[in-house]
Structures
1.
Amino acid sequence: MAHTTVEHAADAAAFIQNQERTRWHDQALWFVRAKRDKAARAVPEWEQLRALAGQIKRHTLAHLADYLLQFEEQALRHGAQVHWARNADEHNQIVLEILQRHLVRKVVKSKSMLTEECHLNPYLERHGIEVVDTDLGERIMQLRQEPPSHIVLPAIHIKKEEVGQTFHTHLGTQADATDPNYLAEAARGHLREKFMAAAAGITGVNFAVAETGGVVVCTNEGNADIGVALPPLHIASVGIEKLIPRWADLAIFTRLLARNATGQPVTAYTSHFHGPIPGGELHLVLVDNGRTTLRAHDVFRESLCCIRCGACLNTCPVYRRSGGHSYHATIPGPIGSVLNAAHDPRTYYSLPYACSLCGSCADVCPVKIPLDQQLLYLRGTIAGAKHLPLAKRLLMKLTSFVMQRTWLYTFAGRLARWWLPKLPRFLVYNRLNAWGKQREIPAFPKKSFRELYQNRQRHGQ
Amino acid sequence: MRIGLFIPCYIDQLYPDVGMATAELLEKLGVEVEFPVEQTCCGQPMANTGCQPETRPLAFKFLKIFRDFPYVVCPSGSCVAMVRYHYREHLSGQPGFEELVGKTFELCEFLVDVLKVKPLAGSFPYQVGIHQSCHGLRGLRLASSSEVVGPSFSKMRYLLEALEGITFSQLDRPDECCGFGGTFSINEEAVSSQMGLDRLADHERVGTQVLTAPDMSCLMHLSGLMRRRGTRLPVMHIAQILAGRAVSAAY
Amino acid sequence: MDSKHDILNTLRRDPVPDTGLPALDGPWLTFEQPLDQFREVLAAVGGQSLVAAHEGDLPHALAQLPSFRAAQRVWSLVPPVASVGRDWTTVTDPHELEVLDYCVAPGALGVAENAAVWIAHPTVPHRAALFLAQHLVLVVPGRSLVHTMHEAYARIPPGQTSFGLFISGPSKTADIEQALVIGAHGPRSLTVVLTGTDFPASRFSP
């Protein structure tokens, strides 16, 4: 059976076909990046915070088993229940079992990339449980039956007209409505009903503090807070890389997260849970799902430091011009390219090449993950495992063969410079010449540098 | 002072005047320039495609050619970054390798950090757009990048700023990638071209009269896009401006 | 083997180099006028601030807000301000709080760098009130203002309450074309009343 691979370049080209949308997408995300720059510059110790955040995360990874045990011990002391899941299936089974035990039919969920990664929604729906995503952007995507295209701004790829159409169909808003205030108000009313009817709330977690056994959730809408303040049952899915050692470390991360994500000084709500709501239950599901494998790898371990701020997506010139869906992954953009290609290099072979190696992602990263270098490293893995198309591999072999032989390089260069300008245009600019689709090739000089230089040496200065 | 001149293969074949300008500039500053003719390509296209076995012999070839020079100077941030950061996996432990890493410089950093030259005299009465080639910017830190909080600096601008009549373009996106990216320009042709067109539009909007960069590859890409569209903003490698070339020498 | 031990054993099997846990010494950002900074940031994140020299002035200060004057259902947890509509302390099911127009709650401390106010659970019997009310008022002693989150976390006893949170501005979203909409799910407005006259390192500027 043929293996389906993600072909980023083809999907990106299709996205760019809609020039107006591409420009909007690019500018909207650049605007977020510019706000981030302004917020970062307002903090004189910004670079120190980045360095500390990176050190804290790397240290935590080194002692992850100890910190997980400390976290569990403290969480139990507060009356939380702690579960461990090796993979997505175990995670989903644990969540389902808790919900079934409480006879829950309706759940509200706030944003959690981990539950997206585990495909929790369709799993619960198959078992007759209604799951409502309550983050506005995620709800829009859920109603449209599309995956989010950004980890912080899930609906960044669609226009208000499209939101209007979606809400008209599903929420009965006026046809052709486009006013964001009107549409958000309609969603507020719709989701209030869902909040009032839910028997359990599911959240993700931004940080899990080993010292205190608490989890911290950051939102702007307040949806996570409403979702777990009404029903007695709160289930929080926690990737094991979310651990940080100390309560005081929260200051470092809460100072970085929102500033780097959206340019806000902090999220509107930063909520700390140590134990269940009075009379209720708090379940913490600690999930591995490939994280221990990444941790064991000397290069990819770095990617587990990610705090999901989304800044590398906002700054990536390729992401901004290709849209999140072109990555066909729960997490798109530079960090998504690393995580997905590290996990499954065959399927995601094209993602590390969807990168001009500009390095902006690494400079914007709040925990200093060298994302561009990780993508470069992955290219080695992918080429080494022969996941690259044969033509590309052969071209590189040929180039290397020529470049190893100075005489051949010199000869080939002279031949090309003499020959190519004489060729009819259709032979140079055709389907096979990707460079020439929108670009002219350089005008060929008669003499190379080495010829000019050697002439000059021969004939004196 | 004697240096080995490292001229990237595409400059050798396509932009010989950039190499000549580099040699002349260095000689004018009293440097003894030697161009070892055995050199070809540093291997970056192969390395950036992930083809390490194809890169390896070129790394060895490079070390053999340049090992004995006190300094190696190159008018390309990208190719210097290749030697400085990506040869290690092939050449680690080879005699002369650590020294090679320490003595290989991009032209602007060689002028500013090693020769410690003052801003160059001359005249260049144009509004110049300095394109911040990414590997020079974020790899070699030839200038401060917009993401990092700290003092603002630019070795390119420092070298140019004393030229009579010169002014500099101020862009909303000071260091957005042009979209060349080596084989990226072929693999992701649509995105690459879009990035380049956007970068050119930024420069047109602010009235750039001459576009320069420490890497000719970015300019090759941008110039190729312009020539197809019949627009023509002169592009010059920074070595050409520093060597006193007129705008008529622009590509 | 169960999942817990499987995960822990895998983690123990693969040793990872440690570069140490850094000390968090700073120095951190400080402001000459923390009160002004707090108020400026609060306005920038969509909130508003009032000052009241004495707790007794609170009702008068809040009466400046037209929506507060018109409110039919107010739950005040700050004594000088009267609750309106019913005895909210008898609420047992938090769903009943959905009808609240206003919630007036005490904040333990304010953070100048980001206008965040810390609220701990025991001061608010049903935390749902903070999110369900159409409008929220937080009363914060001026002397509790700190410069940054570092000082804030240093002053909050870790893990002593089952729930505690920072609130910075009203509920908001920008998920529709990046247009900022205030009042996504939670309160449509946030008013922080700073009380007292002893603000740290700051002129009292009503």
2.
Amino acid sequence: MLAATGAKSMEDIYCDVPAEALLAKTIDLPPHQGEMEVERAISAMAAKNLNAAEVPSFLGGGAYRHHVPATVDAMIQRGEFLTAYTPYQPEVSQGTLQYLFEFQTQVALITGMEVANASMYDGATSCAEAVAMAGRVSKRKKAIVSGGLHPHYRDATSTISGLHNMDIDLAAANYAGDEDLISLIDNDTACVVVQNPDFFGHIRDLGPLASACHEAGALLIAVVTEIVSLGAITSPGAMGADIVATEGQSIGNALNYGGPTVGLFAVHNKHLRQMPGRVCGQTTDTEGKRGFVLTLSTREQHIRREKATSNICTNSGLCALAFTVHMTLLGETGFARLAGLNHASAVTLADKLSGVAGVEIINETFFNEFTLRLSGPAAAAVEAMAAKGVLGGIPVSRLYPDNPDMENLLLVTATEVTTGDDMDALVTALNEVL
Amino acid sequence: MADTHETITGNRGLQLEESLIFEQSSEGRLGVDLAEPPHVENRLGGLEREGPIGLPDLSEPQTVRHYTRISQNNYGIDSGFYPLGSCTMKHNPRLNEKVARLPGFASLHPLQPVSTTQGALELIDACAHWLKVICGMPAVAMSPAAGAQGELCGMMAIRAALEDRGDVRKRVLVPESAHGTNPATAAACGYAVDTIPANERGRVDFDAFVAKLDTDVAGIMLTNPNTCGLFETDIIKIADAIHDAGGFFYCDGANLNAIMGRVRPGDLGVDCMHINLHKTFSTPHGGGGPGAGPVVLSEALADYAPLPFVTHGEDGFDLVEHKTGKAAKAFGRLKGFHGQMGMFIRSLAFMMSHGGDGIRQASADAVLNANYLLAELKDTLSPSFDGPCMHEALFDDSFLKDTDVSTLDFAKAMIDEGFHPMTMYFPLVVHGALLMEPTESESKETLDQYIDALKGLTAKAKAGDAAYFHDAPRLTPRRRLDETSAARNPILRWRPPVDEAEAAE
């Protein structure tokens, strides 16, 4: 092959590289290894972790452990899905395009919105993009961000939407679920960002907030980090949200130490052309058969370049497929049942914890996650429980390290995989460490 | 001909028609094993959902069959040759999938105590080490979710560094051949985009670049090798000039596959560069993601890296999640949690499998494959530039002059021949561009078959059979799709037929 190119050596082919930059020798990294050796080395790293599936685990806070049916992984590992590129050639990409169309429909249905895009990187970036979009729609700059929004979402939104000349007004962290956002809205407000259930687990009626936003000409952005909750509670769309920006990891996707996951993004038709991200649409081919294509790409960077609505190029395709396959297995019946099991599990956990000395439940309302106030610092309690083989929740201080109000707060989650024995182990562990 | 054979079902042998899940629902069917929830006194605060959502009910066998059938309408790297220029469609080893699913990673919660996730932090650190050595750079920000977010990360680090020294600048220089994400990113960071022309050799016009340099230029965003598949011969001079003007050098690392193990971006004067793990390090493209875009950083930018990052603490690895101490100058946070862990595992497996020696070999193989295509096709197609290429070969459409066959038509005919088309109409600096990137994965036999197909099609086009191309593809699950009406009248979700009837009233 080298002879066919007319070159005598690879050095001839690399002739355009400045000589001083061309390495003569192999870089200083270990030599190649076989499949067995690599698997052994990486398995050894995996073995150093305390796997949340093998011990009683009560962590949520934006990443949730659920049962993912075996079918999901079998489907997403099909090479036709796994090894395809973005479906820019629709004639040979109808598989990807059809599931994206199904995904968009599922997302629109569960969020109570009219349309959804083909997914974003994750919930936090979805939220940040929603704020930037609200700026474009309202032509205003001020974004009011709830104190009940996940702290990573607050930070990512400050970092990313700040770039879009948005002024991010972060309301004080609020663990009690009683903040008054309505009084902060004025005629300069582009949007209010609120999470439901919020980071601390509280569920609120977004209706009054939506009305106040709309009266002031602002948009309501509703964030959901636990998408399973929408099987049980009123959708953000039904409560008046203008943009729904959520994390979809709970359906179809493992924890994966937090990534990759899948951001969901849904809006109403009137704002469609300001929506970021890829969108799949239905059309017909030259024979009149129904087919699907990526569409509305005139919003996107590869066409608009510096005038694009966002610099985003990829979506979270395979995670979106996992979401869609799992949601298809669940269906209307299964999704409602899954949500019901989660809520029942959390109610049972709350009942069990209410009798533990030194533990106070903050929440009146919750779905599958709520906040406890312990008699001492939660971080130390969590470390002590971990040493006993119980992952007892998230100390809120990990996310709000400098806030003394948060020091004793512990966020706990129960899902359909949490057993009665797990709950008893948490009760025992808390009794021992407090 | 087989493609005119009508069937009763619309199916054609192994080519199966498949309706949407919403059209296959039968109420009460269930694809999961979930019991009825026990009765509890609910704590939903009176906000229980009312009425159905509208999701379809399918069984497990229906679901498996549905997704299997639609998967067969897709072309992937596993199916055949995918010479999509600029996208690096290389083989995705299944070992990488296997280790990413080890329960010790897959079931690891991101907010577990770091004392219980030492293996995960070790893996991130190991992956970071490989990337730093390959790039010859002292630091790397691992958290960006994809290449475009990596670009954002790099440009934000540049902006933070400039602001930190009280030097607010307004413009970013971007070559006209750049990926669309580059100007979009620069604009997202609040910079005006100033386009640099290419010279007749397909490289940055150095004199034009120097003429634009002043104290208002924050930096240059340059892809190397560039999007024409060419190494930027003046790159060190460009780096020196931008540094002398007080600006920074952002390198788009999309084409790292051509030079890994042979040229270190750090030796070229690069200040920051994103790495598309889904290209160079073979994490699956997955039909459009998820990607991962770690950004290597020079000493000058390292302090501004976003949260979180892994450090070596006294008791093992630590995770810095807040803007204090070492992270006092961090420019913020780009996504939830700690980055695309699943992709770090896959790319580390890829890098360890190849080793330092294999990485060097892979880039040479990728470049040799591209030069083989260029050499074998130079008399048939029209190469855009003289001389050898790097990992991709660029042609323009002058070989189709007077044939009434466009680049698009030609590419669609490639589909009927069993290939995924090359990248078309990109880069923009070449008329009717055809950009082919074979990667190191392909055998000579595959390349020869592809070359034969291109030669045959070119002969057909030159013989005047334009209609053949206008009608292509013929043998796909769908023929050409009407993208204009899709955009003009967007149908972005399924609605029940009754809704459509109501809407029509």
3.
Amino acid sequence: MPPAVNDDLELVHRAQRGDFSAFEVLLGHYETRIYRLAYRILRREHDAEEVVQQTFLSVIEHLASFREESRFSTWLLKIAANHALAVLRKKRREHTVAWETPPEEEGYQDVPHPRYIAQWRDTPEELAGRRETRHLLDEALEELDDKYRLVFVLRDIEGLSTQETAEALDISVANVKVRLLRARLMLREKLTRAFGDEATRVEPHDHDH
Amino acid sequence: MTQKNPREFVQGGLDLLVLSALADGPKYGYLIQKRIREATDHGVPLQAGTLYPLLHRMEAEKLIRARWDDSTSRQRKWYELTAAGRRHLTRQAQDWVRLTDLIRDLLTPVLEPKPGV
């Protein structure tokens, strides 16, 4: 569980005054969370470890400039997302694939239409408590394009706001919204195949859109 | 031997491990972790959340110095011992070895009791 906001602030203040043990406690609280965030984005242990290290270095060097306009955890996750994004961009450049989509292509017109509809066997609460669910979600996430996965991880898994996600990824709020919608729809379809009740399955191919 | 509170001594052990990992040349954080992990046969798990504040403190104490390297595709911060850091390492290593020798002398009979005792 993430520590309470007030605990963080007290540690931040101590660390800002040069208390190294406060730094240690603060970073220790978030190490696993940053690693998981980076791993979900980059999908390689080594890259995720690098992101943890880069993030900690940045936090140590820039903590003095943390203005408490956001929660410490949000500030930290934005830094981690930035580093993960930088690694991703480097990889993309190596593979000469563009990560950014030109703004005019980003709209609601191509939002995926479901090809598989079924009621889920269990309630979301029941599913959320299961280890299997997390595993399947991670698998489904892996199949998403980077640009959708990043938005989904920051917004729906890490709980950043739309504005914060936009800042972390350096894209517009409108783009965050569109990408999030697409990501959710694509994930829903993938997960419905895993959790859907066969008895209620419908093939919506006779829809006319 | 330098006079030291035993508790401080144990806490200083981690500093000593990190300094010793830098004794044969500069390293960046991950390489320091790797060296310590291998040298201690995974017996001392050093988390990044512990390592970086520790490096930062030792840099402030001028025991190590750091520089950024941008020449590869990844930006990395390399650490190396300063002359003061090397002196500190040597002095602390001597103290540590003397203390552990004393402790070993005390503890060996506990593990190998003489027959009939």
4.
Amino acid sequence: MKKLIRMRYTKWFNVSRDGLSRNNPIVIGVLGICSALAITNRVDNALAMGAAVTFVIMGSSLIVSLIRSFIPTRVRMITYMVIIAGLVIIVQFFLQAYFPQLYRSLGAYVGLIITNCIVMGRAEAFAVKNPVKYTFFDSLANGIGYTYILVLIAAVREVLAFGTLLNYQVLPDSFPTWQVMAIAPGGFFVLGILIWIIRDLTKNYDEEATA
Amino acid sequence: MSRNQRTIVFVFILGLSFSLLLMGVQSLTAERIRLNQEFDVQSAILDAFDESYTTANFNDVFEEVMETIETDDVVIYVHEASGGFAFEFSGLGVWGPISGIIAFESDFETIRYVRVLEQEETPGLGGVVAEDDYLAKYQGATMNGGLTISQTADPEASNEVDAIIGATRTSNAFEGMLNRAYEEHKAAWDAYDGGATT
């Protein structure tokens, strides 16, 4: 028990909690919204996207953290871009070679991981200032934090839009499917409601709103 | 070493190592990607002629039921049972290349099947060009006098097909590439067929 209480004060615990809940990139930071709206119409797409983004966040953060003492300050943004773009292209090759079906349904959004603010954000805000062991927890927590929110949104949308969950029929055929949930506006509704619920539960309001 | 020199050396090493890494990954995956693309084309053509296949035997089935004719730098696939034709087409869309396959009945004029395999058009607008529901409209249309894709397509005219609403440029590009590919392949086939019979 004592050990558990003490864990709350360790850095890796706090770093992980930041990524997963306290500073979750999507619901608190409202980053990476573009892909969160676009590919969350089915749970399998959300899982694949989550895995791809987690890989890129972890890969880029770990590389940046590893070489952080060599990166010249003036070219650090370009350094992040080269590393991130390189990893995203590797993901593209990998999906094209082994999961062509997924590659097609994710379409342009795999390439757009390059522009996902979470990836660059973690590199600049955390990895470049922290040793590899903490960067590992930070990037993993942010990747999983992104993934589970995506899966939550996708679960709601897929059930309402297609009556299925992971392509298994969960609602009777007589259920009138909600076309709007299959398209981007449906993503907006679900994400908005989710952010509202989570912020209300965690009492995380914007400063001005509470004042 | 001055700061500038260090920066240049750093950028050089970074660029070099990532280029090497990407080249390595590409050469590792190139063969599988090529096989996947071959599967896409061949399975689409087999679907066009209602042939059944599995992911394991598609290549054997394809070689059995289709005859591949290479003439005049073009490749035409002939379905031996029905005498139908198929070939690949490609061209520039609005944002990127569009490519796919088109199949014809044995008259080499009536469209039997169209499938778009690759496109980067605007999702929801030009992206409709890859949807099977939309491409089903092409079934039964003829290339006689050139295919016309327009918003005011005459349902009576067999060579007119509805354009995609809100995607005029994609529709125009698609019309152009289909007609171009058809003319090229038809001319090559006529030359080949004429030469073969005389």
